[in-house]
Amino acid sequence: MAVHHQLTLELHRLGRIVTCVNRALVTTWGGKGGPTTADQRETLWQQFFTDPSQCWDCRPEKVTESHAGLVDEGMRCYASMIEVYMISATLEHYTRMVDLLARAGHLQEAENIIEVMPCRPHVTVWMALLSACRIHGSVEMGEHIAKVVLELEPENAAVYVLLSNIYAAAGSRHLCENVQRQRKEQGLKEQPGCTWIEVNNEVHTFLVDDQDHPCMIEIHAELKRLLGLLHDVGYVPYTKFVPHGVGEDEKLFHLCHHGEKLTVAFGLINTAPGTPLLVLKNLRVCEDCHLFTKFISKIVWGAIVVRDANGFHHFEDGVCSCMDYW
Ligand SMILES: [Zn+2]
Ligand SMILES: [Zn+2]
Predict the structure, then answer these.
(1) How far apart are CA 173 and CA 123, in angstroms?
(2) Cα(208) to centroid of ligand 2, in Å?
(3) Most CB contacts within 10 A, which of 53, 62, 108, 276?
(4) Is residue 287 one of the residues assigned to a domain?
(5) Are residues 220 and 310 in the same domain?
(6) Residue 277: helix, strand or coil by DSSP?
(7) Ligand 2 geometric centre to CA of 292 (Å)
(8) Domain named DYW: which ranges (predicted)?
């Protein structure tokens, strides 16, 4: 009974974390059709005791899936998952912990976890660490991990892209171009980014530098107008990861025509002010589009929700639910 009571407290505590702190997770649940209000979650916590199999999304291991940089909370949930609930960690849990630690900048601790994993580390867990090396500008660790992943998966184009981004951010133009050349020589193509939105029961899809949409003239005019307004409220485009070899103007032009920006501009033109926008993207949203959307959410009424390859971003009043960890 004591364990049951402790579990109840722990789940309530986790419930509070979900409610108060980690809006990203709430949004994710909402997106999955899961519990969105405190009452609904409370009911699900109770169901958890009677029949855990009926509410998989409420189990503690699901709650450790925090991308909000809540390292301490994540570590505590992780420890209690193993020590209190006797749930043994799977490859997915290890990946989540590595991701959580690495995104928050604890790269060495994250690598230590990979080293002590009882199962063989797979590409996903290494890629989580490589993405974090990109965020935190760790060239040395990035090079090492890229090598490890390419041994496991020689045709992984994303490794080349991340490594070239790491070199670009470090100002190593020559190394950046080298990696891009190697990727091309191997015949490996970057997966094209694709963004889409449903407006008036019709799905509209946009690619980077898309010129095909019939409303492109209006979209470009709207983007230009928005960029002027954003500039006035402090938006400065984030060009750190744009590969070298292109001029500053070209970099900006390219960033301005990312699918997300075209999609958001299109959504704003075609909906009444205040209408929430739901934008979907097949890849991870880039730093500049994330920043752009945060600023947009400062100057428009409604919320903008972006579902990218990593999860949900709920932008409102200049803030994103992921707290800039994604
Ligand atoms: Zn972008
Ligand atoms: Zn976000």
Answers:
(1) 27
(2) 20
(3) 62
(4) yes
(5) yes
(6) strand
(7) 11
(8) 234-326
pLDDT-derived band at 71, boundaries 50, 70, 90: low
pLDDT digits (tens, 9 = 90+) for 208-235: 777 888 999 999 999 999 999 999 999 9
Q: Give the residue from 158, 190, 222 where a domain finishes.
A: 190
CA distance 116 to 234: 45
pTM value is 0.65
Give distance in angstroms: CA of 281 to centre of ligand 1: 10
Whole-number Å distance, alpha carbon 200 to ligand 1 midpoint, is 25
Structure tokens at 69: 């940089």
> What residues does 313 pair with on adjacent strands?
306
18 CA to centre of ligand 1 in angstroms: 28
What ligand is nearest to the CA atom of residue 320? 2
Domain residue limits at 274: 194-320
How many residues are listed for the chain in this entry?
326
Nearest Cα neighbor of 309 from 158, 189, 188 is: 158
Residue 316 has pLDDT above 70, yes or no: yes
Q: How far is the CA of 33 from the centre of ligand 1 (A)?
A: 27
What's the gap in Å between 323 CA and the centre of ligand 2? 6
B/e letters for 127-144, b = 16+ CB within 10 Å, e = fewer, are bbbbbbbbbbebbebbbe
Q: How far apart (Å, rounded) are the C-alpha atoms in residues 230 and 245?
A: 27
Domain presence at residue 233: yes
| CA pair distance 282, 95, nearest whole angstrom | 21
* Residue 93: inside a domain: no
Q: How far is the CA of 193 from the centre of ligand 1 (A)?
A: 9
Specify whether 302 is located in the same domain as 207.
yes
Q: What is the mean pLDDT of residues 174-180?
A: 92
Q: Give the number of whichever ligand sits closest to the CA of residue 195.
A: 1
Q: For residue range 22-41, what is the model confidence (pLDDT) as tens digits? A: 333 333 333 334 444 555 54
Ligand 2 centre to CA of 82 (Å) is: 29
- The CA 259 to ligand 1 mean position distance, Å, reads 7
Q: Which residue has the tokens 């990979």?
A: 114
